[in-house]
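User: Predict the complex with copper (II) ion.
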Amino acid sequence: MGRAQRGGDHRGSVRVGRGRVAKLAALAALVIPLTTGCSVDEVIRFGWPVGVTPQAEAMRQLWTWSAIAALVVGAITWGAMFWAIAFHRKRKGDDDTPPRQTQYNLPIEIVFTVIPTIIVAVLFGFTVNVQNYVTAHLPNPDVRVNITAFQWNWRFDYPDARAANGQPITTQGTSETIPLLVLPTDRSIQFTQHSTDVIHSFFVPEFLFKRDVFPYPQQNDQDNVWRIDRIDREGAFVGRCAELCGAYHAMMNFEVRALSPALYDRWVTLREQVNPTTGALYTAGEALGALNCGQLCTPQAYTTYPFNTDRTKRSASEPVTAGS
Ligand SMILES: [Cu+2]
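Assistant: Here is the predicted structure with copper (II) ion placed in the model:
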């Protein structure tokens, strides 16, 4: 067998090898999404939770398109890299002459400066647009809630709803009770927040949003007002403190309970009244229990649970069993 013929066989086997790799890659690209149970919706969320507000959806779309833009740039870059690696390797018999050099090529330099600048400008434009939408205030919100954060719990006041004692409806968490932030679906809600001690952060993952809770927000030049246009569906959503605020920061949880507007109105009416069983104003949990609407009206939080404050226990807190 001559040298040329052996060389031909070698090139042929390389071609077959490359073809097999390409087929395997295509097969993996097809099979992996199908076998891992990922829906198209899940894939294009690129790991973000499913939001329940229009603001969350706007941010999710920004994220999705930014990720797609990054993947397109990535695919072009990886393609160029692998093409150079595969087809421009130093081969046996090549001498040490360097390949054709293209530095100081002004048109290419200009193109490679202008294209990234355009990409960054477009991403910046869309980001500012979404940010302005998410952080805008509402002139006339349907519901207003004042949030007070403190080491290590939350208080929620409804300034537009007066209880029988003339004070706004208030829900405050304790070491034994996770505070329930009851809100209506399909109504605009504006939150005003402040802290009584250190900086906390109000975070509901399903809102895809968090805002630091400052002491003295005005003096600290902080925008402590934000809003959501509506909550899209009923449900219970865990809320957390997202700013390291002290020893029990990780346990500073609350629960958003989103009710239909009709149920929410009934809940507010109950909270304005005295509970005949206790002789005191209805608590958030008692009023929910009285609505009797199934799991959504469970008097205690069920997305999270109170923590054990006894530090001598040295064991993890346990979920509160039903009825306790
Ligand atoms: Cu905190």
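Residues 149, 200, 241, 243, 245, 249, 252 surround copper (II) ion (CB under 6 Å).
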